[in-house]
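Continuing the batch. This is chain 6 of the set; chains 1 through 5 are on the previous pages. Same settings as before, nothing changed between runs. Recording input and output for traceability.
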Amino acid sequence: MEATISRRTFLKGGAAAACTLAAAGLPASIAAADTAPHLATLIEIDKCVGCESCVDACREANAAKYPVPVKPFPRMYPNRVKASDWSGKKGVRDRLTPYNWLYIQRAVVDVNGEKKEISMPRRCMHCSNPPCVKLCPWGAARQEKNGVSRIDSELCLGGAKCSSVCPWNIPQRQTGVGLYLDILPAFAGNGVMYKCDRCYDRLSEGKLPACIEACPEGVQSIGPREEIVEKANERAKEIGGFIYGEKENGGTNTLYVSSVPFDRLDAAIEKGSGKPHLRAAEDSMGQANNLTAALFLAPVAGIAAAVGRYYKTIRKEGNRNAS
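Output for chain 6:
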């Protein structure tokens, strides 16, 4: 059984952790920056047959990370704050959800007078300068040295800032899970945000991301970003094609190559919640208001992250003592 933690104990210890952090330096979202080359992936859309082997592999590899919500959900204040519950819809595969971090987006376009069905894997773009990381007020999102951006489910409060600042609104929320349940469940959040973490744990073990390993058509490849950009441009030249992701949002670590222009693909795909677009995306972190916000939030996020890390520590200790 999981041990409970009193709010008084948490807040008292968290305050001490915050003071320590304030004297120590930068939060993880800033301090993690490194000169090591980012890894990027190339997705060759023309090779994809829409078999969904990548989706199956992603779900299997990440099942242990999926949320297990506590019900009934705490009532939120103000009342306009609504719960987001996907726990009864875990089988949904045609969009991004907290239980489905990769899906196959489909489009039918006219090519030389013939209808052609296009399939493409969609997930987090892993931006080179990710706004989800730089603008998270709780320090719950971080960018690894290899360029992977991920959300720490044990620190996230589900405020959805990461999703609102993402040009593609990638992160998805599940209510009834996470840190907010132990602090102020009615006021301090609404769950945890989830998205592709590019199998960072597998990468740390020298393995390929599950979706890449499982693909029978070799749709995706991974390597240092400079090499992937070069490969994408070579491939685009070979097929008279187009690239998406090289410059979008200031550059991402996910590049797509297609023989069909991306504005035509964007016009043909179904878009909406959990179904990202393929439009050109301006550099959101190049905007003055976001730069200012990032500078202001850095120390705040660092303190919040320190409090969260303290919580993780005492929770684990409590669980060991209770077992």
